[in-house]
Amino acid sequence: MNIKRVSYLVIVLVVVSSVLLFVKPYVTWREGGERISGEVVVLPEPRLTGEMSVEEAIARRRSIRSYRNEPLTLEQLSQLLWAAHGITDPRKYRSAPSAGATYPFEVYVVVGNVEALEPGIYRYDPFNHTLTLVKRGDWRKALQKAALDQSWVGRAAVDIVLVAFYRRTTSYYGERGVRYVHMEAGHIGQNIYLQATALKLGTVAVGAFYDDQVAEIIGTEGVPLYIFPVGVPGG
User: What are the protein's UniProt keywords (predicted)?
Assistant: First the structure.
């Protein structure tokens, strides 16, 4: 092999390696290093203005347990996830306050009826505003069974599941951090409520379920704290 050919191959390898450094591999990691690989769905950009004021959303907010058999749009799901846990600042601060900016939550979505989105379980990536597919299939009925057979969990178009990784916060604040994690769950939950109200959707905070069963269904090593069924209100 002559010197010119060797030099050419070296240049090609350097260029390819450089490109790969900047190409996003569609792979994420679970807490503890367990790998999740799957399709990545790029969500529509969230809107920063809407048709309903914060004051009106607060006044209209109710727990809604009855939903029509109608799909959500991908735009609606995007807006809900951004309100729950999206990035709102160049410094990577998010839509809900977090003690010491430790952000102990991961947000999963059990999708059953969303336009242009395959049913399945997805993990929300707030940094890229994308969804990573964890499991295919409609898991709403399985989640309903794990949630003491609360029918609205199975009837909702989607179920948003908040999963806590306590160590992210307790490693800074000790046992006091457990309280801060629970406070943050409330912050995120209220954001979901208000955004759903502004989108003329319905939701309800569900806290009664078997933790281990929900964790197994969505495929996480964290602790599920909340399920938020979301759908088009009915009845």
Answer: Membrane, Transmembrane, Transmembrane helix
Q: Give me the sign of the Cα torsion angle 149, 152, 158, 161.
A: negative
Cβ 99 vs Cβ 177: under 8 Å: yes
Residue with tokens 């190409």: 23
Q: State the angle between helix axes of 176-198 and 74-85 in degrees (0 to 180), rounded to the nearest 10.
A: 150
Per-residue DSSP letter, 25: -
Query: Taking residues 166-172, what's their average pLDDT?
Result: 98
User: Residue 231 to residues 39, 67, 149, 154: CA-CA distances in angstroms?
Assistant: 24, 5, 18, 11
pLDDT confidence bin for 2, thresholds 50/70/90: low
Spacing of C-alpha 13 from chain mean position: 37
d(CA 104, CA 170): 9
**Do residues 152 and 63 make contact, with C-beta atoms less than 8 angstroms apart?**
no
- Rounded Cα distance, 192 and 204, in Å: 9
Domains recognised in the chain with CATH numbers: 36-231 (3.40.109.10)
Cα torsion 215, 182, 107, 144: sign:
positive
- Which residues, in sequence order, are CB contacts of 5 under 8 Å at separation 6+? none
Report whether 52 contacts 79 (CB < 8 A). no
